Amino acid sequence: MTDTAAKITVGRDEVYEVTIGSGVLAGLPAALGPKVTRVAIVHPRTLRALGRTVNQQITDAGLRPLLIEVPDGEAAKTAETLTMCWALLGQAGFTRSDAVVGLGGGAVTDLAGFVAASWLRGVAVVQVPTTLLGMVDAAVGGKTGINTAEGKNLVGAFHPPRAVICDLDALRTLPHADLVAGLAEVVKCGFIADPAILDLVERDPSAATSWDSDVLRELVERAIAVKAKVVTNDLKESGEREFLNYGHTFAHGVEQVEQYTWRHGEAVAVGMMYVARLGELAGRTPPELVARHSAALASLGLPRTYRGDRWPALLTAMGRDKKNRGDLMRFIVLDDLAAPGRLEGPEPALLEEAYRLISE
Ligand SMILES: NC(=O)c1ccc[n+]([C@@H]2O[C@H](COP(=O)([O-])OP(=O)(O)OC[C@H]3O[C@@H](n4cnc5c(N)ncnc54)[C@H](O)[C@@H]3O)[C@@H](O)[C@H]2O)c1
Ligand SMILES: O=C(O)C(=O)C[C@@H](O)[C@H](O)[C@H](O)COP(=O)(O)O
Ligand SMILES: [Zn+2]
């Protein structure tokens, strides 16, 4: 399949491009930049074959590749894996003119980004996301990091990539459930900023869940455009970037409490339902907008309820969210469609009532 690639520019001080299209992986060597000599390709076990292909591509470009295989999924985002990557870079003599490639889903791009952010206090990273979620969210914007026993993404750095290459051909092998999970972050962008996304999903949910449809491609480009605009204005999350965290306080709690057996996107879907209910209880989110959450998520086959009966553990996890300040818990809620705002210090009874509503 050949087509015209789309390009979206991100950043103000450090500007980079997100390239979206079929076959755009061919542009990886050029995207690394002129001064790079060695390239660490961090990939999950599942993408071993693709890792070898990229390894050959780097060799053919006259560069020196180093393949680093890491566990699949959240198991990659650990201090142990990070330490293993540092050891391999050290043994290979990686210098500041060398680069890291994150080839995989959001878990790998988060890890690879943090490897690059921390190695020699910062080397270049080019992100090559291979999941929908990685393309529309994780690989763009420079949030990198790992989990700790206490919670999700608690250690990390803001380290923008040198380039992001979204080759839509990668979606061919992605399990359907992972594609659908990625749509949760797309829908999130619809609710916080771009209602046209919701119109597209609602008009044809089955096209939205087809990896090679024009609808999905438009959704990818729209979601990346939302993220690009926000992170360009507020890279370090001192203002509007917090809106990208819509649904994530509860979502990260579910992921941790359920020991990362839930996909991130699935947890975000339930997290959005939770915070929509919380916003409604607080008199902020209109009931019809809550209903629209439920309908859109259901049409895609995303979960809307959490029946784990783990409220105390979830509350503890939510108490560690990065948006909190001291003892003040802070949530992103919708005052209207595409009108996000902050809910600060809601009463504990309200938090629990919202939980009860999505547990029914
Ligand atoms: N940094 C950010 O701004 C940001 C944004 C959103 C999410 N995230 C993080 O992203 C992670 C979730 O990312 P995800 O949903 O991509 O999950 P994932 O990275 O765990 O990937 C899902 C599964 O798909 C496999 N896979 C990847 N590409 C494949 C392909 N093309 N074909 C077949 N299998 C493939 C992976 O090995 C894994 O088993 C979470 O850790 C989340 O916290 C980060
Ligand atoms: O880019 C952001 O900012 C986001 O919040 C996007 C989220 O979808 C993403 O899951 C992010 O990793 C969450 O960040 P965290 O700071 O809550 O760990
Ligand atoms: Zn997310």
Give me the CATH fold name of the largest domain. Dehydroquinate synthase-like, alpha domain
- How much is the average pLDDT? 98
By CATH reckoning, the class of the largest domain would read Mainly Alpha
How would a textbook summarize the main sheet?
A: 7 strands, mixed
Number of strands: 11
The chain-level structural class is alpha/beta
Radius of gyration: 20 Å
Distance between the termini: 46 Å
Shape: globular
Small-molecule binders: nicotinamide-adenine-dinucleotide, the ligand O=C(O)C(=O)C[C@@H](O)[C@H](O)[C@H](O)COP(=O)(O)O, zinc ion
Helix content: 40-55%
Catalogue the unreliable spans. Answer: none
- Cross-sheet strand order for the largest sheet: 1-2-9-6-5-3-4
| CATH homologous superfamily annotation of the largest domain | Dehydroquinate synthase-like - alpha domain
CATH-scheme architecture of the largest domain: Up-down Bundle
Family: Belongs to the sugar phosphate cyclases superfamily. Dehydroquinate synthase family.
Catalytic activity: 7-phospho-2-dehydro-3-deoxy-D-arabino-heptonate = 3-dehydroquinate + phosphate
Protein name: 3-dehydroquinate synthase
Subcellular location: Cytoplasm
